[in-house]
């Protein structure tokens, strides 16, 4: 069966420090991968999605970047964190079509 | 363009009473509709989906949803609410005609079931 792993679960980082959040999927190949941010426990904001290795689409301009170095690995990064980058980050994967998404357990990022 | 609305930020219901969480959508073609639930500090969990067929869809934890094409709605329901149903609920839609497009999520509705 397919599983999605996201880590770390919580992270406290100072302003100006770098960020790397990792997401990996097991049990499937060539998944569509997604990074969402959720502020204040409400709506989901799609940050990036990827349909294949090295293919990244950005939905909103921001201080973050994403990479997909391997088929089942999706990384969210920042060179210098801002206070506004705080939030709950969710990774998800989906095969497309009428299949829904499967979400990771999320990372709570607090920038101090 | 695809869009989803959840008109209520918050729904309060007493334990044992029926609950409804509303969702309306807009797509060009036929919709694929999903409901997800999120508990605090957790990822979203799949509840149920409508792809085609019967308008009443049954899902996890006793939830069901009714697809109404004329009203472009997909309301989530449960006959008898539990305190443990308290969570954040998201409706999502994808247009069948745009196979490669991403899902669009609604803003979420916070359900509070009071004991």
Topology:
The complex is a heterodimer of chains A (112) and B (115).
Chain A: E1 3-7, E2 10-13, E3 19-26, E4 32-38, E5 44-52, E6 55-58, E7 65-70, E8 73-78, E9 87-94, E10 102-103, E11 107-111
Parallel strand pairs in A: 2-11
Antiparallel strand pairs in A: 1-3, 3-8, 4-5, 4-9, 5-6, 7-8, 9-10, 9-11
Chain B: E1 3-5, E2 10-14, E3 19-21, E4 24-26, E5 31-38, E6 44-50, E7 56-58, E8 64-68, E9 73-78, E10 87-95, E11 104-105, E12 109-114
Parallel strand pairs in B: 2-12
Antiparallel strand pairs in B: 1-4, 3-9, 5-6, 5-10, 7-8, 8-9, 10-11, 10-12
Which sequence of SSEs, written as H and E, runs from N to C of chain B? EEEEEEEEEEEE
The stretches of 5 or more residues of chain A where confidence is low (pLDDT under 50) are none
Name the quaternary structure.
heterodimer
The secondary-structure element order of chain A is EEEEEEEEEEE
- Overall 3D shape of chain A: globular
- Would you count the extended β strands of chain A for me? 11
For the termini of chain B, the CA-CA separation is 41 Å
Count of helix runs of chain A = 0
What is the overall pLDDT average of chain A?
92
Low-confidence stretches of chain B: none
Largest interface: A-B, 25 and 25 residues
Task: Report what the structure shows.
The complex is a heterodimer of chains A (112) and B (115). Chain A has no helices and 11 strands. Chain A has strands at residues 3-7, 10-13, 19-26, 32-38, 44-52, 55-58, 65-70, 73-78, 87-94, 102-103, 107-111. Chain A is globular, with a radius of gyration of 13 Å. The mean pLDDT of chain A is 92. Chain B has 115 residues and is mostly beta strands. Chain B is built from no helices and 12 strands. In chain B, strands 2, 5, 6, 10, 11 and 12 form a 6-stranded mixed sheet that branches. Chain B has a 4-stranded antiparallel sheet with strand order 3-9-8-7, with no helix packed on it. Chain B has a two-stranded antiparallel sheet with strand order 1-4. In chain B, a hairpin with a 5-residue loop joins β7 (56-58) and β8 (64-68). Chain B is globular and about 45 Å long. Classes of the chains: A mainly beta (112), B mainly beta (115). Chain A binds chain B through residues 6, 32, 34, 41-44, 46, 49, 51, 88, 90, 92, 94, 96-98, 100-106, 108, and chain B through 32, 34, 36, 40-46, 49, 51, 88, 90, 92, 94, 96, 99-100, 102-103, 105-108.
């Amino acid at each position: 069966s397919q599983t999605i792993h996201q880590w770390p679960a919580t992270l406290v980082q100072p302003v100006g420090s770098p960020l790397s959040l990792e997401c990996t999927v097991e049990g499937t190949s060539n998944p569509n991968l997604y990074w969402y941010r959720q502020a204040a426990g409400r709506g989901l904001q799609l940050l990036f999605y990827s349909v294949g290795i090295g293919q990244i689409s950005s939905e909103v301009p921001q201080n973050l970047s994403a990479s997909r170095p391997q088929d089942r690995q999706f990384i969210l990064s920042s060179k210098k964190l801002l206070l506004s980058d705080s939030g709950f980050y969710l990774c998800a994967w989906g095969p497309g079509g009428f299949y829904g998404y499967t979400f990771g357990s999320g990372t709570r990022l607090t920038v101090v | 363009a695809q869009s989803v609305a959840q008109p209520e930020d918050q729904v309060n219901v007493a334990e044992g009473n029926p609950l409804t969480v509303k969702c309306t959508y807009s797509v060009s073609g036929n919709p694929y509709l999903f409901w997800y639930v999120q508990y605090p500090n957790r990822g979203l969990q799949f509840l149920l989906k409508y792809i085609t067929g019967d308008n009443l869809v049954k899902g996890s934890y006793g939830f069901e949803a009714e697809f109404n094409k004329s009203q472009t709605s997909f309301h989530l329901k449960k006959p008898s609410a539990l305190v443990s149903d308290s969570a954040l609920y998201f409706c999502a839609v994808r247009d069948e005609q745009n196979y490669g497009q991403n899902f669009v999520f609604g803003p979420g509705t916070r359900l509070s079931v009071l004991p």
